[in-house]
Every structure is written in structure tokens, then in C-alpha cells.
Design goal:
Elements (H helix, E strand, L loop, with lengths): L6 E7 L2 E9 L3 E5 L2 E4 L5 E2 L6 E9 H5 L1
């Protein structure tokens, strides 16, 4: 079973910016089972392409509802 997403953040890719839902693991922010970003730098782990998670845009999902 997939872990529930607890946060959102903006990911910058070659085709533009996109807000994605995330959850936190021990060392990374996880967007999908094959897409995750280092917690300390925001760089994408593994995979192809140059994507970066903007760490200062991460906020809990509950805060967005307010």
C-alpha cells in the first residue's frame, strides 16, 4: 500500500514548474515510487533528467486548505 502524501512542493523540470504531493522518507522527499528528491539539496535521486525540488516551497497539505 502506498504511503499517504503529507506535503506539497514545487518541482522544476525542463518543461516548467509543477506542484507535486510528497511524503518524507528517511533521506528523501518522495513524489512517486520512481521519483524522489534528496532532503538536504532537493536534487533528484536516480532516474534521468534534471529536476529539482525547491525546498523552501514544501508545506504541509493541511496548511493549503486554510
Amino acid at each position: 500500500m502506498a504511503k499517504p502524501k503529507t506535503h506539497t512542493g514545487i518541482v522544476v523540470r525542463a518543461d516548467g514548474e509543477k506542484r507535486v504531493k510528497l511524503h518524507m522518507s528517511a533521506t528523501a522527499w518522495v513524489a512517486t515510487p520512481k521519483e524522489f528528491y534528496y532532503r538536504d539539496t532537493g536534487q533528484r535521486c536516480g532516474g534521468h533528467g534534471r529536476a529539482r525540488l525547491l525546498l523552501d516551497t514544501i508545506m504541509p497539505i493541511e496548511k493549503l486548505a486554510e
